[in-house]
Amino acid sequence: MSNVLSQRGLNWLRALTAGAAEQSGYPASVRVVDAALGGQPARYIAVVPDAQNRFPRARSGEVGLLEGWSLGCALDEVIEADRDAPVKRAVVAVVDVPSQAYGRREEALGIHQALAGAVDGYARARLAGHPVIALLVGKAMSGAFLAHGYQANRIVALRDPGVMVHAMGKESAARVTLRTVDELEAFAAKVPPMAYDLDSYASLGLLWETLSVEAIETPQGDDLARVQACLEQAQADIRTNGTDLRGRLGAANRAASQRVRELLRAQW
Amino acid sequence: MSDLNALLHSRSFVELGARQRAAALLDQGSLRDLLDPFARVKSPWLEAQGIVAQADDGVVVAKGSIGGRPVVIAAIEGNFQGGSLGEVGGAKLAGALELAAEDNRNGIPTAAVLLLETGGVRLQEANLGLAAIAEVQAAIVEVRQYQPVIGVVAGPVGCFGGMSIAAGLCSHLLVTREARLGLNGPQVIEQEAGLDEYDSRDRPFIWSLTGGEQRAACGLVDAYLADEVSVIRECLLQTLEQPGEALPRSRQYARFLDLLARFDAAPQADAASVRALYQGDQA
Amino acid sequence: METLSFAFPAGLPASRRAQVGCVGSGDLEVLLEPGQAGSLNIQVVTSVNGSAERWRHLFERMFAGANPPALNVDIHDFGATPGVVRLRLEQALEEVSDV
């Protein structure tokens, strides 16, 4: 397997926080940095590869047992720290997660519960009034994205072939649906929610903004400034318009999601 | 004689379909089926892929009461597309929970019961299923602030994928012996990690790690129940009556990180080593 | 997958509607609703291609000359055998029949 581990998450985390110190006490795969966003305090979080991870199936940036629970910890710290604060600090999830960890140890020890720990943290932070923003700089796959990013109020994605949101990799998805990879790709070409490209994903209305950058691997200069400005706008937008997830509804390719809610409300 | 009587009157919950399950748990005559099959809100994506759609997309939303308390039950039909969640079924689940949260904000103490028989995201609607599951999770955490959100994994499908994370967010989680609960389906783990890591055809091995009995022994669920309608309903009644004050499992990062720090991850895990770890903590 | 339509003479409209079954392997979902007096209309969506004659025979045996209630019938089939189809239809008809 040609497995060049992605450094995008770490690179963007460092660039956005201007190299500020990382919080101690976290595993090497979970990087937590407190730094400013638009002059206000914020917490930036990334899950990154760690070749020495104690859990061998979580060495390539996957969200595993330690990562899930540690995300829950990083978010609970913020909620507690701002418990009495009139303005809650923003949380920025820098997302470059190839998958959840697939392994025997993980299933046996309850990785679903660890990822629930992460989702719990993000959801409670949002409910407590923290603006939560996800910045997609690489893969945002399946359970890993549910645990790290999908609870955000606003999702911002960089335009790049390496930025991808999906429920399952092609080979596994083909196996589970009893199709060949070719058949899967043929369907993906005409069914937007099945597609692996960012434009198709954007057509579902789940992204708040997409941004083009010159050099996604090496964030700096204008690229960095533009992304920072966008994150600041997202923060301001959340502070003005609220921390719920209603902004995700409305796209034509997601019309049924809205219609079901309207009908349910009418019959409730 | 009483044993025979009990046997004659026992009624399997696992064998019931989603709509029958909801009816069996709610107070008699209280069920109101929202967006029922005759509303014909089907998947807008399946037929284009040559797959026959079900009229209610495999998710039943039933309002009613349990022991007189207002409850919404969202039940997934495991026999339709493996209980997978697509856009419509996912929106029914999320929308029902969102309306339950709104009830609570308005002073109506609606609790939620989720009957989970699901492989997770429906891959034919991939990203719309994933998005809906994120919204289901958000709504569980919101409703949980006010009233219990009780997950029931009865089997035989079990609860996998993003919906296993949703199960992990419930304030209370009930399972039977026929239940399995895990993030990744066995086939997918084998595909991604290889046969040595996970043999998807070795059923005893898979049950030993992810079956209801093991999850109960490890304290990863709150009750391990017989497959019997009256037993499950009684447990719901008690839980709604006395939900308790325990910190939801998904908030217990400190405890779980401490346990994981003590776990030797070098050898491969097995059912016994995981039980020893989690039971040692409970003792 | 294919969609088939059938019509038979019928009596008065049924007074209720009914839903039975599930679009699961070897099973089908049947929805019955009161129709226009005199006609029984059936629409079948099935995962099995080339099965029109099989459905026609089955319906003819059940409904031709039997003066069934007037109904609109929707069938969503996932490869059910004729025996299972007949069982589900009888279940559904019993639910809408006036006792």
UniProtKB/TrEMBL annotation, chain A:
Name of the protein: Malonate decarboxylase gamma subunit
Residues spanning the membrane: none
Biological source species: Pseudomonas linyingensis
A family per Pfam: MdcE
GO process annotations (BP): carbohydrate metabolic process
Xref: SUPFAM superfamilies: ClpP/crotonase (SSF52096)
InterPro entries: ClpP/crotonase-like_dom_sf (IPR029045), Malonate_gamma (IPR009648)
Automatic annotation (TrEMBL), chain B:
Domain CoA carboxyltransferase N-terminal: 1-194
GO MF terms held by the record: acetyl-CoA carboxylase activity; carboxy-lyase activity; transferase activity
PROSITE patterns: COA_CT_NTER (PS50980)
Keyword terms: Transferase
One BP annotation, GO: fatty acid biosynthetic process
Matching Gene3D superfamilies: 2-enoyl-CoA Hydratase, Chain A, domain 1 (3.90.226.10)
Domain of life: Bacteria
NCBIfam families to which the protein is assigned, alphabetical: malonate_beta, PRK07189.1
Identification of the protein by name: Malonate decarboxylase beta subunit
Organism of derivation: Pseudomonas linyingensis
From TrEMBL, chain C:
Subcellular location field: Cytoplasm
Record-level GO cellular component terms: cytoplasm
Claim: Endoplasmic reticulum is one of the keywords in the record: no
InterPro entries registered for this protein in UniProt: Mal_deCO2ase/Cit_lyase_ACP, Malonate_deCO2ase_dsu
GO molecular function term, any single one: acyl carrier activity
Described function: Subunit of malonate decarboxylase, it is an acyl carrier protein to which acetyl and malonyl thioester residues are bound via a 2'-(5''-phosphoribosyl)-3'-dephospho-CoA prosthetic group and turn over during the catalytic mechanism.
NCBIfam families: malonate_delta, PRK01220.1
The name this protein goes by in its record: Malonate decarboxylase acyl carrier protein
UniProt organism field: Pseudomonas linyingensis
